[in-house]
User: What shape does this take?
Amino acid sequence: MSRLRVLVLAPDANPESITGPLLSFHQAQALAQIHHVTLVIRSTVEGAVRRASSEFRAIEVVPTPLLERIRAWSFRWIFRSNYRSQAWTAFGYPLSIAFEWCAWRRLRRRILDGEFDVVLRLLPIVSVIPSPFAFFLRNGPIPFVIGPLNGGLPWPPGFSQADNQKEWISGLRSLYRWLPFARATYKNAAAIIAGSSQTYAEFSGHRDKLFFLPENGVTGSLCFEAERGPEPSRRLELIFAGSLVPYKACDLALRAAAPLLRSDLAHFAVLGDGPERGRLEQLARSLEIENAVSFCGPLGHAEAMQRMRRADVLLFPSVREFGGAVVFEALAAGAVPVVADFGGPGDIVNPQVGYKVPLINESDLVSRMQEILAELAQNRHHLEELRRQGMSYARESLTWEGKAQKLTAILQWVLRQAPKPNLPAPKVLCSD
Assistant: This one.
């Protein structure tokens, strides 16, 4: 396979960050192991990127000091460092457009001179932020590819966890289609990569150039087999990992685990911190399970993964999860996931590696999870079978290296070097 010359737009890619910036760095780095990748970033992340990797053919830093000061000040003082805020996403639209305009001015001559084969935009991940590059490259000389994209997941009705987190701006999301560059982005893109079934459905009108590739991935080093045979006498080790915010629904996990915890048949480790922690600790006391629950607070990634490897089950009933990186890591580490069948976790988990429970209402979700946990506590051989199959699935399908190969297949198709890859969404959903 000949190495492609890929210009990757990922302004915030950062190996020392979390969520989208971290995920996109890993994806760009994996792609750089098999292709000549020039990574386009902001000056604010340059140090972290250079410390972490020498894989890139080049790192192109686009200095925008005024934009970066506005962005940093607004994030801290207006949005209170809440990167999950949908208002923060909307605020990022003009800043993203301005960054790409500056990047185009800096790289335009090199693009027109034939230095690159294709442009791939990895960041921003959200589909509501369009790309001027698609418009600038509408007549060539090279194709533009965007994704994996995510977003557009609705707030499920009947769950207080969603009602407590939903923002007023959610109802205005569809207006992004009328923003400058929005239509041009998806009309002129040579390929659109969706990171979830929901996003895939949103762009179903572009099905001839639409592909599915999950937003998340795991490093190959996490996927090693640990000897851990079934031990019927041992308590079931349950784990929850994530920010303690309403939509992560750790309260539902505690309620589902309560019967086993009160019977001393399980122990539950809660990894993470957030505004819900006090309420969750009070819930544990009211359920009389406080002695069987450990609130561990925020842990470093290495320690969190050590705990994940010791766990039997990841109990993660988040009611609105776009990607669900923790589910990928649980599979790699050998913890069997029990998740809500919605968003990213619902796309990734299948009956051969774990359980996914439909989002009907709170009581039904809790009841079904209780049944699953009771079954796993009694049938340790089935638990071990799911664990081994999950680890194999992670090694074969969920690593960054494996995703880079699928990305390559898409890029080669765009460049007419290979047949079109078959990468449909796991679920068939109706677009709104």
In short: The domain at 5-217+399-414 is CATH 3.40.50.2000 (Rossmann fold). The chain has two domains: 5-217+399-414, 221-397. The chain has a mean pLDDT of 88. Residues 39 and 59 are 5 Å apart (CA to CA).
